[in-house]
Write a structure and sequence with these properties.
Blueprint: E1 8-14, H1 20-29, E2 33-36, H2 37-48, H3 54-68, H4 72-83, E3 88-92, H5 97-104, E4 109-115, H6 118-128, H7 137-148, H8 159-163, E5 168-171, H9 176-189
Parallel strand pairs: 1-3, 1-4, 2-3, 4-5
Helix pairs in contact: 1-9, 2-3, 2-4, 4-5
C-alpha cells in the first residue's frame, strides 16, 4: 500500500474524547494540513447560537445530512481539500459511512479509527472541562451511545459503522507516546512515514 495519488488524506473517526485531537496534532507536526467536518457543523451552529449543547450540535449535523444527503459534510471537505495546494491532509470529525465514501473520491484517502474504552473517555471528558462536556455521566453516556449510532437514522451519527470501515484502527487506552507510535506505524504502512 503506497501513496500514488496527488493528495494524501488521513481521515479520523472515533468516539468523542477518544484521542482524535491528539492524532490531529501528531499529523500536523508532520506537515499535514487540517480540515474538520465538525467545523462545518460548528459554523452552522454559531449562526443559531454560539453556546449550543452537544446534543444540539448532533441535531444540526443530522439536519445538514438530511438536507444535503448523508455524505454532504464529506463532500464539502473533499472539495476544500482538492481546491487547496497542500498535498497532505488530516480530516477529523468523520461520523457517517457516507462521509467516508465521499472522501474516498479524492483518492489517496485512508480512514483511521481511534478506539478507546468508554470509562477512559468519560474520565477524559470530565478532566478536559469543555462546556459541552459539563453534564452528568448519564448524559455523557447517552451522547456517546447516540454518536455510536444507537437510535440514530442512517444519515445521522454512525461512528460504530464508520469505525468498521477503517483501514487502520489504533488503540488509545494507554499513553500518548503509545498512540503516537501506532500513528507512526500507520504512516510507514502507507508510505508516508518520512516525508
Amino acid at each position: 500500500m503506497t501513496v500514488t495519488a496527488q493528495k494524501l488524506c488521513i481521515g479520523l473517526t472515533g468516539r468523542m474524547a477518544s484521542g482524535k485531537g491528539e492524532a490531529v496534532r501528531f499529523l500536523q507536526e508532520r506537515g499535514f494540513a487540517y480540515a474538520s467536518l465538525s467545523d462545518i457543523v460548528r459554523r452552522e451552529a454559531a449562526r443559531e447560537n454560539p453556546d449550543v449543547s452537544r446534543a444540539r450540535m448532533q441535531d444540526i449535523g443530522n439536519r445538514l445530512r438530511a438536507e444535503g444527503g448523508a455524505g454532504v459534510l464529506g463532500r464539502l471537505v473533499r472539495e476544500q481539500v482538492l481546491a487547496a495546494a497542500e498535498p497532505r491532509w488530516v480530516i477529523d470529525g468523520i461520523r457517517n459511512p457516507a462521509e467516508v465514501l465521499e472522501l474516498k473520491k479524492a483518492g489517496g484517502f485512508y480512514l483511521v479509527g481511534i478506539d478507546c474504552d468508554v470509562p477512559i473517555i468519560l474520565a477524559r471528558m470530565k478532566r478536559r472541562g469543555r462546556a459541552c462536556d459539563a453534564v452528568d455521566e448519564n448524559e455523557l453516556r447517552a451522547a456517546l451511545e447516540r454518536e455510536w449510532g444507537s437510535r440514530e437514522p442512517a444519515g445521522g451519527q454512525q461512528v460504530g459503522p464508520t469505525m468498521a470501515m477503517a483501514d487502520f484502527t489504533v488503540s488509545n487506552n494507554g499513553t500518548l507516546a503509545g498512540l503516537r507510535a501506532q500513528l507512526e506505524a500507520v504512516l510507514a504502512k502507507i508510505g508516508a512515514g518520512h516525508e
